[in-house]
Amino acid sequence: MVHITLYNYNNRKDIINKTLTDGVSVKGLIRDGFDIVKPTVIIRWDNIFTYSYLYIEELNRYYFVDSFRVLENKTYELTLSVDVLMTYRDKILTATATVSSSDSADKYISSREDIYNVQPNFEKLTFPKQQFDKEGELIMVTIKGD
């Protein structure tokens, strides 16, 4: 048996500091050979199940309730997925980093290293036609290197 605290959470999933209020404690059963990232939990509940979020004390993790199904005799089977942001909130908020190179890193891409835009930069220059002896088009290509 595991100790579960049920919550109603209806905001965005990508928020690290979720406001959880009015938790309801219940005991549950995790199936043998479970996946810690997407476990299935069985609980007994007398009312209609309306909760969307929970914390499992023994696993020290927060989970979203992805779906549930009603079994017999007021028993529910909950399919969960781990909330990584809330589970590791303290470690994430106290993490520090050193940036060693940041000339033109894209600050909107989240990864462990800087991302640079390496797509070629094309520039079209217009020349007056009087500079050329023959009629037609001229294509100039330059490559910059070290």
Count of β-strands: 6
Overall body shape = elongated
Distance between the termini: 65 Å
Helix content: under 10%
Parts with pLDDT < 50 across at least 5 consecutive residues: none
As a percent range, the share of strand residues is 25-35%
**SSE string:** EEEEEEHH
Query: Biggest sheet, strands in spatial order?
Result: 1-2-3-6-5-4
Helix/strand-derived category reads: mainly beta
Continuous helix count: 2
Structural Rg? 28 Å
Largest sheet: 6 strands, antiparallel, barrel
Summed over residues and divided by their number, the pLDDT gives a mean of 80
What do you see in this structure?
The protein is mainly beta. It has a domain at 2-90. Helix content is 6%, strand content 28%. It has 2 helices and 6 strands, in the order E-E-E-E-E-E-H-H. Strands 1-2-3-6-5-4 form a 6-stranded antiparallel beta barrel. The longest helix is centred in the middle third of the chain and has 5 residues, at 89-93. The protein starts with a strand and ends in a 53-residue tail after the last helix. The mean pLDDT is 80.
Key attributes of the depicted protein:
146 residues, mainly beta, 6-stranded antiparallel barrel, 6 strands, elongated
In terms of topology, how is this protein built?
Blueprint: E1 2-7, E2 24-30, E3 40-44, E4 53-56, E5 61-71, E6 75-82, H1 84-87, H2 89-93
Antiparallel strand pairs: 1-2, 1-4, 2-3, 3-6, 4-5, 5-6
